[in-house]
Fold this sequence. Notes:
This protein folds into three domains: about 120 residues, 3-Layer(aba) Sandwich (Rossmann fold); about 180 residues, 3-Layer(aba) Sandwich (Rossmann fold); about 140 residues, Helicase, Ruva Protein, domain 3 (Orthogonal Bundle). About 50% of the residues lie in helices and about 10% in strands. Strand 1, helix 2 and strand 2 form a beta-alpha-beta unit. It is globular and about 90 Å long. About 5% of the residues have low confidence.
Amino acid sequence: MISKLNSQLPLLLIDDDAVVLEIIVTALESEGVNNILTLTDSRKTVQFIEDHPVSVIIMDLMMPHVSGLDLLPVLVRDFPQIPVIVMTSSDDIETAVSCIKAGAVDFLTKPVEIERLLLSVENALHVNELSQENRSLREYLLTDRLEHPAVFDAIITTSKKMRAIFQYIEVIAKSDQPILVTGETGVGKELIAKAIGALSNRKGAFVTVNAAGLDDNMFSDTLFGHKKGAFTGADQQRDGLICTAAGGTLFLDEIGDLNETSQIKLLRLIQEQEFYPVGSDVLKKTDARLIVATNHDLSNLISTNKFRKDLYYRLCAHHIQIPPLRERREDIPFLLDHFLEVASKSLNKPKPAPSREVTALLSTYHFEGNVRELHAMVFDAVARHTGGLLTIDCFVGLTGNDNRSLNSALFAPSKDVDDILYSFFGRFPTIKEMEDYLTTSAMNLTSGNQRSAALLLGIARQTLSKRLGIPA
């Protein structure tokens, strides 16, 4: 970490008390950090930063002339790329929350513990790097023939696979043909559908219908409506949601759950762009554009006669297959940062910084529930978090003595164990060779983090240190 800090632009310490500055600088230098600038007059801050680019600003909150509370919003506005850490002698929670809401990345209480300060700076730089990567990504999309990147802002991703999907969406968004969106539960099918609707330039509403659990009567009444007296309780006419979506988009989710009768009605709607309300013999026309989604493999449903082949071919005029999160792991750090931001605001708590163990373990987790699972996991972790770094203890499902869910996700067998052993070693290995191999693999998977590697191996950290020949 120290070499990383020294390779960055200088750290800037701002405090009107020169003695405090000297103490902090001495403590940082004793830890090997020597890339430090100091400033005692807060009135000179803006000009100083313009003349001396810095990587992180660490400033006192209570200063004469211009206080940290007054300076913070100016720094956030004029230098958004520079993370700001505030220090104060007060441990008032209300003040800390105010600073975080104003844009500070962390809040430290004097006297500052040097280890806590180093962790805070490291996390601030990590956040800054993510912000720069996000900005670079947006600039890249703009120059990579993506004409409307703002439409996809709700989809947090750096994946080339997802970018290719965005480009495809821009091509087909104005088409009148149905669009089939497929992918596992939680990958963001509705967000994709909304992006298509936004790009379609249709003036009508975007209407969502979840077909899961709808029998044919409910499906027909929900989509097509009914005339007065069509059935018991139909005491007045009702327009269906297909009418509500006139001139706009109808998003029909979970179409793999439709029964055969409903599938026939949907097929007619697509082919003829017309329908009958329940109990009516008056034909109605529709100009609503149809987007459908499912987490089922429609090919399998067709092979078992649970889904009509002719309907499938009508629906897949344009087909978007969204990759699961485990196939775009590069998105996990960005999604983690985004969900931490959203969760902290929702729960009215300061945004916590994740520990390296959390980042390492999440990067290897299987995520059967995809982005939705990560979202729920982060919200629960922020709710459990009480202070300091966000550690793995806050994440239910990432910890456990045997860690079976994580290991099964990482090492799901694809062929016989004997074949795997011989492919790696050329023969049946010794126990010592297997131990060395597993230890090396765990360290590689966790980027050298001993705590996370020990968790994967199911041994104590001290035991792992001994195997690595590192003093515990």
